[in-house]
């Protein structure tokens, strides 16, 4: 395969393209906007996590003082490749600003939605089972029902679960279905919601916690169970770390064969007078303590 890359004669993309796409990706991702970004090397990152505090005790004046230590564990943030290829007709090649606009408009949203989906709904193969932590159910993130009955109290119950675990619930993210539940719960309590939106961030709050809305909805696989559909998360977002290895990498080819399904729908770029743009990024996420979060959701009949 012969690649026509960013610096090749006649097909150079604007030098700000990769950075612009990355900025737009962050803008469209709830997880990227609310979580804590860290620099990640290609081999990944090992993150020390403090799981327990020393225990002081009252003692008599000359008595032996207690000895106690922090307890520690480690979490691994392993970046994996998230990629998409989009084919275009060669007519786009005559108008690089048009191609640039299409890339900026389409690719960031697709990457952001896929990243949010796998983090929120815990795709175990790619984001390391963030909410279940790969251990017993008792160590999973807290869960509470969010439905049309007592909706405000449902929200408060989730906030309380995070507080009781010893963390500061500093933000709430809802799926569109969760947002609609709240919007229809006018008599359930003092919901300060829907005062305006910039991207995925809503200018509103619940118990002084900022609200965000993900551009995707639950798929029924949240919290490690097919019987609990996630439609919101509240938590201490400093406990969710995410990072990427490099900016989104973009390459262009007009000689490749795109294996769509291995058959009649495969695309022969040269033969069909087309070219394709491949965008990929190495990215990952990890949660320090799952108890710093509470998943809102419903249990299907």
Explain how this protein is built.
Helix 1 runs parallel beside helix 3. The protein is elongated and about 85 Å long. The longest helix has 25 residues. It folds into two domains: 144 residues, Major capsid protein gp5 fold (2-Layer Sandwich); 113 residues, 2-Layer Sandwich (hypothetical protein PF0899 fold), CATH 3.30.2320. It is an alpha+beta fold and 301 residues long. Strand 14 and strand 15 form a beta hairpin. The strands form four sheets. The protein has a seven-stranded mixed sheet. Strands 1, 2, 5, 12, 13 and 16 form a six-stranded mixed sheet that branches. The chain is built from five helices and 17 strands.
Brief descriptors of the model:
single chain, 301 residues, alpha+beta, Major capsid protein gp5 fold, hypothetical protein PF0899 fold, 2 domains, seven-stranded mixed beta sheet, six-stranded mixed beta sheet, 21% helix
Largest sheet: 7 strands, mixed
Q: How many H/I helices? A: 5
Return the string of H and E elements.
EHHEEEEHEHEHEEEEEEEEEE
Name the beta content range: 25-35%
Q: Spans of 5+ residues with little confidence (pLDDT < 50)?
A: 1-11, 219-226
Biggest sheet: strand arrangement: 6-17-11-7-10-9-8
Judging by the overall fold, what is the CATH architecture of the largest domain?
2-Layer Sandwich
N- to C-terminal separation?
A: 51 Å
Structural class: alpha+beta
Shape from CA axes? elongated
CATH level 3 topology of the largest domain = Major capsid protein gp5 fold
Layout of secondary structure:
Layout: E1 3-4, H1 17-28, H2 30-34, E2 36-37, E3 45-52, E4 71-77, E5 80-89, H3 96-120, E6 142-145, H4 151-164, E7 171-174, H5 176-183, E8 197-198, E9 201-206, E10 209-213, E11 229-235, E12 240-244, E13 249-253, E14 257-258, E15 267-268, E16 274-287, E17 293-298
Parallel strand pairs: 2-12, 6-17, 7-10
Antiparallel strand pairs: 1-13, 3-4, 5-16, 7-11, 8-9, 9-10, 11-17, 12-16, 13-16, 14-15
Helix pairs in contact: 1-3
């Amino acid at each position: 395969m012969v690649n026509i890359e960013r610096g090749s004669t006649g097909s150079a993309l604007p030098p700000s393209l990769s950075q612009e796409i990355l900025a737009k990706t962050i803008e469209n991702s709830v997880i990227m906007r609310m979580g804590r970004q860290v620099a990640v090397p290609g081999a990944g990152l090992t993150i020390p996590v403090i799981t327990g505090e020393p225990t002081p005790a009252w003692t008599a004046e000359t008595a032996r003082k207690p000895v106690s230590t922090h307890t520690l564990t480690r979490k691994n943030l392993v970046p994996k490749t998230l990629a998409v290829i989009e084919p275009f007709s060669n007519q786009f090649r005559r108008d690089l600003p048009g191609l640039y606009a299409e890339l900026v408009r389409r690719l960031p949203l697709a990457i952001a939605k896929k990243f949010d989906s796998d983090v929120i709904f815990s795709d175990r193969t790619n984001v390391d089972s963030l909410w279940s932590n790969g251990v017993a159910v008792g160590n999973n993130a807290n869960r509470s029902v969010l439905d049309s009955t007592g909706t405000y109290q449902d929200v408060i119950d989730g906030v309380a679960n995070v507080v009781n675990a010893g963390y500061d619930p500093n933000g709430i993210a809802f799926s569109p279905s969760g947002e609609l539940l709240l919007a229809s719960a006018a008599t359930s309590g003092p919901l300060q919601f829907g005062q305006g939106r910039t991207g995925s961030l809503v200018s509103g709050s619940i118990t002084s916690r900022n609200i965000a809305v993900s551009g995707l909805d639950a798929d029924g696989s949240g919290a490690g169970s097919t019987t609990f559909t996630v439609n919101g998360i509240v938590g201490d977002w400093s406990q969710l770390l995410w990072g990427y290895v490099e900016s989104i990498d973009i390459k262009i080819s007009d000689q490749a064969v795109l294996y769509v399904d291995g058959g009649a729908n495969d695309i022969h770029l040269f033969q069909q007078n087309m070219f394709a743009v491949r965008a990929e990024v190495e990215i990952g996420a990890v949660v320090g303590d799952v108890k710093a979060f509470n998943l809102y959701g419903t249990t299907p009949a």
